[in-house]
Amino acid sequence: MKSILASISQPKEIQNLNLKELTQLAAECRQRIIEVTSQRGGHLASSLGTVEITVALLKNFDFSLDRIVWDVGHQAYPYKILTDRNENFDSLGKAGGIKKFLSRDESNYDHFGAGHASTSISAALGMAIGRDLQHKKHRVIAVIGDGAMTGGLAFEALNHNGSLDKNMLVIYNDNGISIDPNVGAISKLLTRFASSRFYNSFREETLEFADKAPFSERLGLKATLQKLHDSAKSFFSPPSMLFEQLGWRYFGTVDGHNLPDLLDLFDHVKDLDGPIVIHAITQKGKGYAFAEEDSHKYHGVTPFEPVDGKFIKKKSTGNAISFSQVFGDKLGELMERDEKVVVVTAAMLSGTGIVKLQPKYPDRVLDVGIAEGHAVTCSAGLATTGNKPFVAIYSTFLQRALDHIIHDVAIQNLPVRFMLDRAGFVGADGPTHHGLYDLTYLRMIPNMTIMVPRNGAELRGMMELASNYETGPLAIRYPRGNTAELDEKKIPQIEYGKAHILRKGQDVALFAVGSMVDTAEKVADLLEEKGYSAAVVNARFVKPLDGNVIVQFAEKVKLLVSLEENTIHGGFGSGVLETLSEQGICVPTLQIGVPDRFIAQGSPEEQFQAAELSPEQISKRILERLPATVEKIDKKRIDLQKVSA
């Protein structure tokens, strides 16, 4: 059989296909997603659930003119494949390859970038407003799903356009529930009726008649007719009430995998005016049995065998386990011995390592959905009751709750414990998911304590300290990846605000936090090979810094270096410089961190190289600075000797 997918040279050609060909195209697209993600990893289940929706949209709309915004771009693999990227799709997640999320610099068909959830309706509304200001006529569509409708931003945008009344279509890709056969049949009948040209002509004509009738205002005819329309739809389709009350016309539910129904519905509504919502019921993992049975497991996948769905195991790393698992295990111990310990997360039970705790502590393991701001403020409320809330959220997503951290937690000095997973580089997910800014945005907040563990043992020790810390808010950030050292007894005890000196040296002092501590050890070895004595300090705390140790080394070394896996601006290194300034100490310094640019997707190793954070690159920069530094210091000493003589 000839491949239709391979024969498509541009998306517009899809509009010429018949139903049989479109059905085959959907099947080929689904197979392509399975083929590539099984080799490269990626977001499998969500994208399998949007294949038919994507095909139907491309049949009815021309996205070289029309505009579309996909929420959480991991449901948009079919769209990428069908918009000129099929040939290169096997480069998914590679450096310089196809990105896992939507990106305006990747394709003219990606009209808005997306890696975080709940942004689509807001962005699409902005496009609709801009279109009307420029007196253009193209259509604007938002596709929201995979839990993104739980985010408050989505409802803010729905509410806004309920009053603006801009022409706009929202596809609500609802993959969180199954279709009840009976209700589904009634909904299907109602949807076909409500979207039919007969019904919409009748609706518009009756309302227009009510506008013109001389007795309409006195009798309230238009209001009565409108209520009849709305009541009929609300009676048969309860989900419509929310959208209708916000000012949106609702069509649903429709089977999101029934291509004929989708094609028919999109064709009927595409020329209707005003805000419109189509409620499509889909199944995550559709078309791949293993993903259908466990969509959670196959949401974001590593390479696997397509035939049996088994994940390909990576090479053994001894006893290493992920930092997320270390957090989950230690939290379980804390919850068992202290009933006041509660954990709150934002749709990240599995990712943060706490999914196994929920069955055991259903009242103390809280998933609030994709609502990071609510997670933080809710935890602030919990803290006022004497409980001990831990907020477990990826670093990149906690950025969305910055105001809540300041206004609801820090100003009131509440003991909320922030656990920032995926801090630092995250590999193939790229710039939208790097956790490279938390040290900066948290360090500026008064009352905030910030700790960064070197390994699993330090993470456990810091959590122990955090569970007993009632003085104010506290944050612990740790990377994606594994750690081998887990025994708290094998490391010096975590003392509040105290650094750990790993080795002493006279020429260079390397102050490092978290993942960069091991890097600092390697840099010290390279420097010593060149004849320089290098001290290494595991700072442990970014706020408060151990000022005594900083001053101790600053007064005797030729160069003081800070190392962090965080943006160079405003982070750990900036704190070290501020400490020196406050103490009136002038010493040559070098800040090592992530440069002031977005680092593209690739492997973590490639990203460290791109940021010039490998041991070899760092030691080279230090060596370039050292000869000049030594010369300046020696000259200063000579000058001082002359003056004293």
Order of adjacent strands in the largest pleated sheet:
10-9-11-12-14-13-19
Provide the domain count: 3
Alpha plus pi helix count: 25
Radius of gyration: 29 Å
User: What is the tally of beta strands?
Assistant: 21
Estimate percent helicity: 40-55%
Which percent range describes the beta-strand content? Answer: 15-25%
Q: Biggest sheet: strands, sense, closure? A: 7 strands, mixed
CATH superfamily of the largest domain: Thiamin diphosphate (ThDP)-binding fold, Pyr/PP domains
Characterize the overall form: globular
Q: Low-confidence parts, pLDDT < 50 over ≥5 residues?
A: 177-184
Going by CATH, the architecture of the largest domain would be 3-Layer(aba) Sandwich
- N- to C-terminal distance: 95 Å
Examine the coordinates and then state which fold CATH places here, giving the name of the CATH topology of the largest domain.
Rossmann fold
Mean pLDDT across all amino acids:
90
| The top level CATH class name of the largest domain | Alpha Beta
SS content category: alpha/beta
